[in-house]
Amino acid sequence: MIIKKIKLENYTVFEKQQIEFSPGINIFIGENGTGKTHILKVLYSACQSVSKKTSFSHKLVSTMLPDDYKISRLITGKQGNRSGLIRITAGEVDGVQDRILTASFHRKTKKWEAEVSGEEGWEESFAGMSSIFIPAKEILSHSYNLNAATEMDNVRFDDTYLDIINAAKVDISAGRNSVAKGAMLKAVEKMTRGTVKYNPKRDEFYLKSGGSTQEFNLIAEGIRKMALLWQLIKNGTLEKGSVLFWDEPEANINPTYIPIIVEILLELQRTGVQVFVSTHDYMLANYFEVKKTEKDSILFHSLSHADDIGELQYGRSSRFSDLKENAIISAFNKLLDEIYDL
Question: In whole angstroms, how far apart are CA 142 and each of 75, 99, 232, 261?
Fold first, then answer.
């Protein structure tokens, strides 16, 4: 499955926006509040709805968590906007007919009961494909009974957190690791200094190093995030045809690990995984340019607020440095100016 484009009308911060994607790696940059994570969550919800037991509109409110699960609350708050629209186009590299998934809703739509079209063809074409959303905050250390607690309304987590825990528990890999997969696992093991072990009886994750195991909650959060990536690669979740969404990979990560993360994401793309990343990090964005080859497919997407009219602006480029509206470079240049002034 390759997500090709999305069209949003009156959805959260987007009044009217259409974005086309790279079949490889898509990197979203922008200020806080420009909708980077919202785009990732919409696309993830669409990917999850390839299952006949998952409704696109219900998954959308389960990942966005509007009050009372009302999809109408996701309509742009600007006066006069009374309806919202989401249209996602996806297909295959080998030329299989594109499929379009659409959801429309208005101010009076009850709960998640949006008008959805194209869902049946979406399920038929992409059944069985895998998609993963890695949230900015590590969650495996809180896996114990989290699903049950959420069902009882004792805690409130959106579905991206619950789904990633379930994905980490299930091993769908078969046979021996490929050379590329083995290399990625070894690269992560150098950072974590161990491998992941799941104890189903205790419903908890551990880091195994040598002959000892250590509880996840006793390990630095950055190491836990990398251990999660190891587990997803090992379990066979990130294979050809799957889609990976990662919200702020750099959060709580030692900067020395950034180039290794970029190399892993590039390698996943080379094995047929489509990747969507949101970031505020200068090093992460730049390393994609440093590490990529001519065969790698990378597209940078920039979201920003126009100072004079307050509307959202969008730009894209295959080169990070060529983005016209680049909040990361602007902040970095400002820092350099202040250093030079000293």
Answer: 32, 37, 17, 23
pLDDT digit string (tens) for 64-90?
Answer: 999 999 999 999 877 766 899 999 999
Q: Is 243 within a domain?
A: yes
pTM over 0.90: yes
Residue 90 near residue 101 (C-beta atoms within 8 A): yes
What pLDDT band is residue 173 in, cutting at 50, 70 and 90?
low
Three-state secondary structure along 294-333?
CCCCEEEEEEEECCCCCCEEEEEECCHHHCCCCHHHHHHH
Long-range pairs of 173-177 with CB within 8 A, sequence gap ≥ 24: 173/234, 173/235, 173/236, 174/236, 177/234
DSSP string for residues in 41-94:
HHHHHHHHTTSTT--HHHHHHHHH--GGG-GGGGB--STT--EEEEEEEEE-TT
Whole-number Å distance between alpha carbons of 228 and 230:
5
Q: Which two tokens stand for residue 256?
A: 């020395």
What CATH number is associated with residue 317?
A: 3.40.50.300
| CA 167 – CA 199 distance, rounded (Å) | 14
The arithmetic mean of pLDDT across residues 116-123, rounded, is 94
For residue 164, is it within any domain?
no
Closest CA to 96 of 212, 232, 191, 2: 2
**Of the candidates 216, 329, 217, 232, the residue with the CA atom closest to the CA atom of residue 281:** 329
Contact 116, 45 (CB under 8 A): no
Whether 283 maps to a domain, the answer reads yes
* β-sheet bridge partners, residue 87: 7, 102
Provide the residue range defining the domain that includes 268: 2-130+239-341
| Count of domains forming the chain | 1
Is residue 152, in this structure, part of any structural domain at all?
no
Contacts of 224 (CB under 8 A, 6+ apart): 138, 140, 141, 216
pLDDT at 307: 66
